[in-house]
Amino acid sequence: MSFFVAYHPSYIHSVPSTHRFPMEKYGLLYQQLQYEGMLEKADFLKPELADLEIVRRVHSEAYLEKLLKLNCSPREQRVSGFVHTNELILRELRIMEGTRLCAEMVKNGGAALNIAGGTHHAFTDRGEGFCLLNDQAIAARWLLDKQLFKRILIVDLDVHQGNGTAEIFQNVAEVFTFSMHGAANYPIHKEKSDKDVALETFLDDKAYLDILTRELGSVMESFEPDFIFYQCGVDILESDKLGKLKVTQNGIRLRDEWVLHRAKEKNIPVVCSMGGGYSKDVRDIVNAHMHVFRLAHQLFSN
């Protein structure tokens, strides 16, 4: 089998109760994957805590020490979105390992999905927007350090720009950062990705997919990646409280289908992290995320 999913109960249970929504989606996705028969409990990857030496390859020693010792200032905690606790920091380290473990599992091909992750607002030396450490950046750096791959493409289709990821890899030629996001959305100050595609407010399915296939298709042809990280946030959904776009559930399915089919056709391993989703009804969030799991299982489970 070349289809893997990483999950740990701490993904939700270590989050302060005031932030459980929409974090509860993680547990619901875990249950839904079993309900639909894609995986049994024993089949899930169960990440331990990330090796701090691997984390240090991306995040500064000073910042990591502040996190581990709970020394971030009240303002830094507010910007990160969380009141920091030891349980929260350990959760973050487990999410980091979940994505790195996914990358290791598909080094010879296939698809792996972390039920959490997509923490693209974490910079080298600080956290923002509910992101303390950057899972895809840590996993990508690990792949490069191990000399397993030479050209890594990070496809970020969350409605918010992957500003932390852009900053981390701004001078790393082996990693191409692609971010397609709402022009009028958070963050106000955008970093410079290798390719930024800023979207107008209220864009619908057809316009969104036309832009995606043109812009990302061009990048894939010119950069020729040998590994893909896919940040597949579902906050582009029309029901999302923060998204400002008009993409439907079918539009998200077609988006995920296009990305995964390109990976399959070109025999490129792909690791997906779920990213954001803030619809009022958690069922809309779970339904939107489930598209990528179903497609990955269909394409890569045999």
UniProtKB/TrEMBL annotation:
The keyword Endoplasmic reticulum does not apply. It holds the Pfam family Hist_deacetyl. The keyword Hydrolase applies. Coiled coil: none annotated. It comes from the Bacteria. SUPFAM superfamilies: Arginase/deacetylase. Keywords: Hydrolase. GO terms for biological process: epigenetic regulation of gene expression. Residues 19-289 form the Histone deacetylase domain. GO terms for molecular function: histone deacetylase activity; hydrolase activity. InterPro entries: HDAC_classIV, HDACs, His_deacetylse_dom, His_deacetylse_dom_sf, Ureohydrolase_dom_sf. Belongs to the histone deacetylase family. This is Histone deacetylase. It comes from Fluviicola chungangensis. The lineage of its organism: Bacteria, Pseudomonadati, Bacteroidota, Flavobacteriia, Flavobacteriales.
